[in-house]
């Protein structure tokens, strides 16, 4: 059991790092699974690799609670914070396209694209896009410098880019939304922050969907599997806190090209190792 706990810690570390850096948590989880197999049922693992993201999501909730929580007390009554309703409406607008695709085609997408080769191709393609977009946008001043300046039109565009990640594992949800945001003039810091906020409903929804399917399949979770799930999720939360802080500090002085090059190298390695 100790070995399985250590494996769960490793998966949690990988999830915590790769969920927020635009380098594809899916690609990394596939690689880790190829070399470090958890001693669990196939049905449990499908659920585990999605639900473990809840730990990463809770890091966003904790770090950005003041911005995410839409209410404050005014005249001894709860009231909307200035701009909070608008922000959440934009988040919902941006989430809807990926949510529809996820609910309708989740199993089909897993069947068609959740394999090493499609994931590796997505890693490489989006890596190239990062380098190209950063080169094109170099020297241009962003027109949108905070979330309040994001329009509903911009939210829809960012949401459509998020669909790419929903359809093609390995694209990276954060990577796709950041590229979309940069192309329409959103600053790097605002693009990253909005991506974090979008992840909250998207990943809660994805986790809920997987749990419902797992329960509907009539599979019983063992005690050891429950421990693995809890530990992996907790480690993902702790690591995510540090990674999010690092990324927000890093992009104040640097662009995303390094992540593009990393994705290309990783994609090539996946093709070479897992072909």
UniProtKB/TrEMBL annotation:
Coiled-coil stretches: none
Membrane topology: Multi-pass membrane protein
Main location: membrane
Keyword Hydrolase applies: yes
Reactions it catalyzes: di-trans,octa-cis-undecaprenyl diphosphate + H2O = di-trans,octa-cis-undecaprenyl phosphate + phosphate + H(+)
Top-level lineage group: Bacteria
Pfam family, one: BacA
Keyword Membrane: yes
Keywords per UniProt: Antibiotic resistance, Cell membrane, Cell shape, Cell wall biogenesis/degradation, Hydrolase, Membrane, Peptidoglycan synthesis, Transmembrane, Transmembrane helix
Subcellular compartments: Cell membrane
GO terms, molecular function: undecaprenyl-diphosphatase activity
Transmembrane segments: 44-66, 87-105, 117-138, 150-168, 198-220, 226-244, 256-274
Enzyme nomenclature, EC number: 3.6.1.27
InterPro entries associated with the record: UppP (IPR003824)
Family membership noted in the UniProt record: Belongs to the UppP family.
Cited function: Catalyzes the dephosphorylation of undecaprenyl diphosphate (UPP). Confers resistance to bacitracin.
Note: Bacitracin is thought to be involved in the inhibition of peptidoglycan synthesis by sequestering undecaprenyl diphosphate, thereby reducing the pool of lipid carrier available.
Protein name: Undecaprenyl-diphosphatase
Native source organism of the sequence: Lachnospira hominis
